[in-house]
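Re: [ENG-882] Designed sequences occasionally contain unexpected residues at chain ends

Forwarding the minimal case from QA. Structure tokens:
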């Protein structure tokens, strides 16, 4: 018998961390004018584009209003293919009346005439002539969701801004820096420290003062010019040294820093008055070990660089230089060896980098370089030179030789860079990428923006890659336990995942490569290999006295493969395997998209005495319809329920009402992606039978989870 593989299209790569798993976004979508099958087809396409949709079909205005009141919806897809009591224009009007920010997309066969098209756009309806192309529909949806996400982010930022403005006002009041706001060259506000510095009592109203009263005549014109520059937007920040006058006519020298500001919702100029810095204050921005800027000095330089870049024509690079062997050096030589290394690298970098660029030592192991040069080749050449120079360093602390390499992450700084912290995180991420897949650093990497698309086109190379993998067994099987919360279950349950291996031994999830394979015959061959491997695993386990139940994922394409189950039945008989140890997992979306095939497939499985698990239960509004169509043994809840429980947007009582009909039918309930003990105890009290998730165990290359001390047949 040939050795095969397993298939799964909705789980992340086993090497992915929590951040990768969070990239699969759950969105809530309303459908109007859609049949169940058409809505499920769109939902299946979205799932293959790393979007986890939770959908509901609307048929009348009352349902729409109830749904809009129930939750925040991400998208409203309209169509005229299925006549309803509620037409799409009235639906759009209801959304508008309730002041809901929900993108409206009308899917049609042909574009309307210009006048009708304009009217629809005025009503907030985006027209998509994509009825004949599911991939175009997904692209429109993807763009609408991205725009919605941006709008929501802006609203969130506006809320934060309002809070920040209140907080800033309070901080300015308490600040030990003298601060005032200037409007039309008059002081409209001054904090307590400003009163003190200029010799006025706190009770005195300074609104009658203008610059003539506080700046000497020699510097007055210069200050007025800088205020004009800031007001006009020529510069965002300006600094100028001036002589200032106190209330008693004495004078002192200070540095005025001017910023664009808003005070009482009016444009103003904020002026910070700082007496001349002492040597001690200047040294506060220098790291004494490396002789470079410290974190405080680097932050100031980075903000200045960003301000220049936002004007355009001042692009540059941020280089994040991380020492690879820092921990080892510290363990072997202590602080003495670390200080020697940091000081030597500081001197080395000063010798390699022109003074026009800014160097800093911001953390024990991290140096940074702000490169004021827009040429990528310049950044590459300098990064390569730094890597080689640091690798060639050889220092000694007693008998121990101090040597290290470095990993350099590089990110572009230009007018699109929003924040300094974002640029730093991007560069850090690029540096850490040099340690993935057992790499040891000692190189440089540029941060790459995510260029992934929601739809993967038909790819002949992808087809050939899968065919080669079947032929040469270039697949890897991973196993994740499904753990019972009830002691009565005495059999080891595992869900089995497939990973395609690349030439450099990297694992690729089926989510990546399956959507680009249009050939059902290729996928049928892969299904055969999947089940062949499952059969052999089961036979080996039984020979060793183990009882294991395998959960095998099948896709909508598999449901249409008429030759698969007769072949599988013959294999069960020839290998003398218990059919009820195999559970076929079918997505609710796939079941809805092909109801006739789903029903026939389930009936055939029951004749074989195999078990059925309906996964992603609750991801559509037609869950009960699917349950009524065919008998199932297990239901795996949609992960959105778990997320809502964690966020407290779904109460345990509401969850109990959702699963009550399932428990009454005697269906075993599985909760996926469980992440902590608290969640498990909550699910147990609700009556959930089994749980699964990375907290218990991520998918691994063997089936060695400790379910119980002894195993016996369920």
């Amino acid at each position: 018998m040939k050795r095969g593989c397993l298939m799964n299209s909705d789980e992340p790569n086993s090497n992915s961390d929590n951040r990768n798993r969070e990239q699969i976004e759950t969105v809530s979508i309303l459908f109007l004018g859609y049949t169940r099958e058409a809505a499920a087809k769109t939902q299946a396409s979205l799932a293959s584009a790393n979007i986890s949709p939770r959908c509901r079909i609307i048929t009348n205005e009352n349902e729409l209003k109830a749904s809009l009141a129930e939750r925040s919806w991400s998208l409203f897809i309209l169509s005229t293919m299925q006549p309803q009591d509620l037409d799409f224009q009235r639906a759009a009007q209801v959304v508008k009346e309730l002041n809901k920010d929900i993108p409206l997309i009308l899917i049609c066969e042909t574009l309307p005439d210009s006048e009708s098209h304009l009217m629809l756009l005025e009503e907030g309806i985006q027209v998509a002539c994509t009825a004949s192309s599911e991939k175009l529909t997904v692209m429109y949806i993807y763009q609408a969701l991205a725009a919605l996400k941006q709008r929501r982010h802006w609203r969130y930022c506006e809320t934060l801004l309002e809070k920040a403005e209140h907080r800033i006002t309070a901080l300015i009041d308490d600040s030990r820096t003298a601060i005032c706001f200037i409007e039309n060259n008059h002081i409209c506000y001054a904090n307590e420290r400003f009163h003190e510095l200029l010799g006025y009592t706190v009770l005195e109203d300074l609104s009658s003062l203008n610059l003539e009263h506080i700046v000497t005549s020699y510097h007055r014109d210069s200050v007025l010019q800088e205020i004009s520059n800031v007001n006009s937007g020529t510069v965002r920040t300006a600094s100028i040294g001036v002589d200032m006058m106190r209330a008693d006519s004495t004078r002192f020298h200070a540095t005025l820093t001017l910023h664009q500001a808003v005070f009482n919702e009016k444009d103003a100029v904020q002026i910070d008055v700082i007496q001349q810095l002492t040597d001690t204050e200047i040294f506060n921005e220098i790291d004494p070990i490396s002789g470079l800027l410290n974190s405080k000095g680097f932050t100031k330089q980075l903000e200045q660089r960003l301000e220049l870049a936002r004007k355009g024509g001042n692009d540059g690079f941020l280089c994040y230089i991380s020492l690879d062997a820092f921990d080892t050096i510290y363990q072997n030589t202590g602080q003495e060896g670390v200080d020697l290394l940091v000081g030597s690298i500081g001197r080395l970098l000063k010798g390699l980098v022109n003074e026009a660029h800014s160097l800093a030592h911001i953390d024990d192991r991290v140096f940074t370089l702000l490169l004021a040069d827009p040429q990528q080749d310049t950044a590459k050449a300098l990064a390569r030179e730094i890597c080689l120079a640091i690798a060639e360093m050889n220092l000694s602390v007693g008998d121990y030789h101090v040597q290290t390499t470095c990993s350099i992450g590089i990110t572009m700084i230009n007018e699109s860079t929003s924040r300094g912290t974002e640029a730093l995180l991007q560069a850090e991420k690029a540096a850490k990428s040099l340690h993935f897949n057992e790499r040891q650093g000692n190189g440089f990497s540029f941060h790459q923006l995510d260029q992934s698309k929601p739809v993967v086109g038909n790819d002949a190379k992808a087809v050939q890659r899968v065919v080669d993998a079947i032929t040469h067994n270039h697949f890897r099987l991973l196993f994740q336990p499904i753990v019972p919360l009830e002691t009565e279950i005495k059999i080891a349950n595992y869900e089995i995942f497939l990973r395609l291996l690349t030439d450099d031994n990297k694992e690729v999830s089926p989510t990546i490569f399956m959507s680009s394979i249009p050939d059902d015959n290729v996928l049928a061959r892969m299904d055969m290999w999947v089940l062949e491997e499952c059969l052999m695993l089961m036979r080996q386990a039984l020979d060793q006295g183990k009882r294991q139940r395998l959960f095998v994922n099948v896709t909508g394409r598999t449901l249409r493969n008429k030759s698969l189950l007769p072949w599988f039945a013959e294999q069960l008989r020839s290998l003398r395997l218990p059919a009820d140890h195999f559970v076929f997992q079918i997505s609710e979306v796939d079941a809805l998209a092909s109801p006739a095939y789903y029903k026939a497939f389930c009936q055939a499985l029951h004749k074989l005495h195999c078990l059925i698990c309906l996964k992603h239960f609750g991801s559509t509004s037609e869950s009960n319809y699917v349950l009524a169509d065919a008998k199932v043994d297990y239901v795996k809840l949609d992960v959105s329920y778990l997320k809502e429980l964690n966020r407290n947007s779904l109460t345990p009582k509401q969850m109990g009402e959702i699963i009550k009909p399932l428990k009454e039918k005697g269906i075993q309930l599985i909760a996926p992606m469980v992440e902590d003990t608290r969640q498990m105890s909550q699910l147990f009290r609700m009556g959930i039978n089994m749980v699964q998730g990375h907290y218990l165990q991520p998918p691994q290359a063997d089936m060695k989870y400790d379910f119980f001390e002894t195993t016996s047949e369920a």
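QA comment: On inspection the terminal residues look reasonable. The longest helix spans residues 134-174. Proposing we downgrade this to a documentation issue.
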